[in-house]
Amino acid sequence: xLVARPGxxxxxxxxxxxxxxxxxxxxxxxxxxxxxxxxxxxxxxPVQREMxxxxxxxxxxxxxxxxxxxxxxxxxxxxxADGADHGEVHGPNGFDLHALSGNLCRCTGxxxxxxxxxxxxxxxxxxxxxxxxxxxxxxxEATEFSDGERTFVRPATLSAAxxxxxxxxxxxxxxxxxxxxxxxxxxxxxxxxxxxxxRLPELRGLVVTEEYLxxxxxxxxxxxxxxLDGRVPLLAELFPQFASRLIRNSATLGGNLGTGSPIGDSxxxxxxxxxxxxxxxxxxxxxxxxxxxxxxxxxxxxxTGELIKAVxxxxxxxxxTAFQKIAKRRFDDISSVAIGFxxxxxxxxxxxxxxxxxxxxxxxxxxYHTESALEGQPWxxxxxxxxAGLLRAEGTPMDDHRASxxxxxxxxxxSLLKLYAxxxxxxxx
Amino acid sequence: xxxxxQRPENPVVGVALPHESAGLHVTGAALxxxxxxxxxxxxxxxxxxxxxxxxxxxxxxxxxxxxxVPGVVTVLTAEDVPGLNDAGVSHxxxxxxxxxxxxxxxxxxVLGETWEAARLGAQVVEFDAEPLPAVATVAEAIETDSFQGxxxxxxxxxxxxxxxxxxxxxSGEFEFSGQEHFYLETQAALAFVDENEQVFVHSSxxxxxxxxxxxAHVLGRPSHAVTAQCLRMGGGFGGKEMxxxxxxxxxxxxxxxxxxxxxxxxxxxxxxxxxxxxHGFHARWxxxxxxxxxxxxxxxxxxxxxxxxxxxSAPVLARALxxxxxxxxxxxxxxxxxxxxTNKQSNTAFRGFGGPQGMLVFEDILGRCAPLLGLDPIExxxxxxxxxxxxxxxxxxxxxxxxxxxxxxxxxxxGDVLARQQExxxxxxxxxxxxxxxxxxxxxxxxxxxxxxxxxAGALVHVYKDGSVLINHGxxxxxxxxxxxxxxxxxxxxxxxxDRVRLAPTRTDKVPNTSATAASSGADLNxxxxxxACEQIRERLHVVAATRLGCGPGEVRIAExxxxxxxxxxxxxWDELVMAAYLQRVQLFAxxxxxxxxxxWDATTxxxxxxxxxxxxxxxxEVEVDGFTGAYRTLRVDIVxxxxxxxxxxxxxxxxxxxxxxxxxWLTLEDLRWDTGDGQGRGRLLTQAASTxxxxxxxxxxxxxxxxxxxxxxxxxxxxxxxxxxxxxxMLAFSVREALRQAVAAFGSPSIGVExxxxxxxxxxxxxIERARAAGTPPAAVIQPPPREGRLSRx
Lengths: 429, 795
Known about the structure:
The complex is a heterodimer of chains A (about 425) and B (about 800). With about 425 residues, chain A is of the alpha+beta class. Chain A has 15 helices and 18 strands. Chain B has 19 helices and 30 strands. In chain B, the strands form 7 sheets. An 8-stranded mixed β-sheet of chain B has the order 3-5-1-12-9-10-11-20, sandwiched between helices. Chain B has a 6-stranded mixed β-sheet with strand order 7-15-14-13-8-30, sandwiched between helices.
């Protein structure tokens, strides 16, 4: 479905999110549009018309979801319909195909859906959803909703959130709900009290200082992606590979670090960036290096009653960075292994190396042995081959349905070889 | 030319139309079975109690704790069944079992005022389970002789003579995975008891008549007491041919026990844990070629993983055996078929129905052997195509064999294959870490149900006094566009505009004794029946019109809603004609019937002509593989496919593209894994959600995708000259797998026979690359057993 949210280049943007992962109470006071609201069988919306006439629906079951994702991209204010070649996954109308990467279709094979997306024009005058972008969206309301048994709370301020957390430590904190929503839907988890912190203003800053770049824990990944606009190349490489646009429109960095999954995609990148986590509790704030944050499977140094407030990335950034994700599917998959690299290479010598790894231990980890083996060494094939051998042995990867432990270990080494090959190609080019 | 295939002038068939429900799909207005729940009062919700053992005897079941949960109304158990406690037609599938046969098998169902109440009730039902030994894999089944059903043999010629003449003999083993249907709409049913104890079941089913029959036998009622209806399905793919019946029966039983409507909808995980999938297979084979690379002999034993019960495994195996030849002449054949009995979900129909598995065995052989024979795979395949006058191993003459070469040459031409092979060689020479390859594979697929009796269909056509037309037929709509085609057939036959015809949902009190909408046969069979019904009405109308127009009945022309004499001198419009007919007391409705002529099949000797005709196609696919990780992309796909003269080109295009991508998913990405260890979780399906079982997404869509329908392809003796299209294109995806194999070889040497696991996931491709690299140039060194795969050796 589409939700009216504050925009970057216009007052409001229509943002597509997964309806099945959003608690209804979390939408109190919000403006929401579904495929039914876009048009009717008699008067189809332009997105609906293109999908219908081009064979974009067969069984039709996935179609309303596609329609909403496509409509959000149709209304994206900075979509450039200039007929130019915008790259591999962009249409001549500026349509970014990643907008649809979170929607699955089992019937069509996607080609007609892509063609429908690439055939879209720009909204015409009198389009009320296009016009709506000029006015600011309704802010999420402070909410307390209870069915008598369970409560959903959206406080207005961080201090109110911390107060509630202090009073009731068994509160389930949700910040985007893309992980918890699955727990609820599939695993039957239920929260006595759910505390929504995803719109707290104190958690939504994007601040740049001389020393660091601060990313608010409740910014969605899309907001960070658009706010940074390529300023951190490692993150720019991460974002398109992080789940799907639908998820990135809700998911937050605070949520990704808060759930502490060893296969979360942001920790390897943030570890490579030497990120620090700002924790806020009723007694005040503290800052811990992300490398010291995780203590065990889905466990961390975050104390009961504390919330992640922000992530700080020290500046300046390393010169050679990469994010490599190994998965079965290129779009919208969970990592078998994820590797973040940040290397400073000066006059052919590796001065500083930071490597973050996910999917090979109970927590995301740093590849300390490999880092030290690289530091001070010439950036050459023989250094890299030796370091790749060490990298393969970092962590304790397991065998599961995503990948074998052998493959996971092999991919660690391969990732460094790939980074090296790419860096050489860049020099040659 | 038969009357059936002949088209009138300006027919409505052949026009490229969007899906008849497209406007409803895109606005969210289309209703699916479970949408009806919100329009129904006092519905109860059903939730299964699943037992976490691969094989166990249930010695006690205590439902009282569930009854104590607020909102729980009752728990359905075997004791509630007034009729036959069985969900299938082979009577080997207890609906409420006392012996659990697979991990997640449901033993009883809780009915609650809300789904949440039923779920909480199901959590507290207690059972005592006495674990029994379980067979977790096909390999274990083969080892322990755990088989079920007959073991047919497909045989022709003298296999030993064939091998004696062969210049090259190779042998090997190949085990490959099945596939989860992952229809977007999970299994769903909603049952009511009408007045006079009549049961009405809405079911997301490809086979309403069988749903009706199973519901009736579970309830101990005759078929006329049960009506099944299918509005539309959110995908079927074969997964709703047999699987919905037991679930509909549970809902119907709940409705009769409580007197209230009962809704049963599986969530994704339940659906994946409880319902059958495409059969994985194991094959052991020996093949002989002459010096030029012609296949002389094939001997194989193929074992289908049937799961815990027979379900449709016997006909799936039959189709596998009948398709092991694919498009190739094999003079001497001997193939043994077996069905493994394993403690897994009971595998079932899935688009292609064993055909893809049989064909995969032989395409894999050709792909592995081509380098060993020193032949380009394109050339090896071409040399072995069927020629005029040749028959399949089961004795059916191959009609239109020239179309195999036809689609083949055309796809090579359309895809500029020869020039691109040069470009690819140059690319590969210049890239150490990235390799590309282009492969072409053919499809020949037999159309008709193997079992002759199923090849019949009915329809009911009403013309109302105002000239509007309502059609009903036995086929179900699962997205494949059957209803669109049927509307086009009716409009064409009656000679009226498409908007005068409306189609009502499929239900068993309109058309009885229908066959499953399966085997790609929906349009052939139901189209024949609709055409027949429309022709009856049209003939009667011709008589009425002749009187009005002052000509003979044979001189009346009805086209685009206008009724005239052949020379056009006098005319009236359709609505006038219909009203005139009514006033003259002429019957304005008809039941239509169709059966496919000329079929025969002996399932014991495995001989006959079970298929009306063959559908042909060829695909050329180029892939790019990353040598660091084994990840790959599909750069370009060209397809030429034979759909006869298309009834509905946009629909057919959708079937071809969608089938191809679904096939590519099966062969590359979709990776079903079960716990095969000896611990508590033995037999448990590990990939039970979209998070772990990966369907193709936008990233798997070919970047360039060109599909051409074979022109001038009218099929004699089939409705308006068309051909079936549902299943055959799935097998065009072999070209993806073969391209991956060739790209892997490019990391080593072109002369190595690459073994590739199926699905060829990035990991599987990576290990194949590692083996290819290790093998380097000398071909003999390649023949080493890799982990998890069979062995290829020179016999």
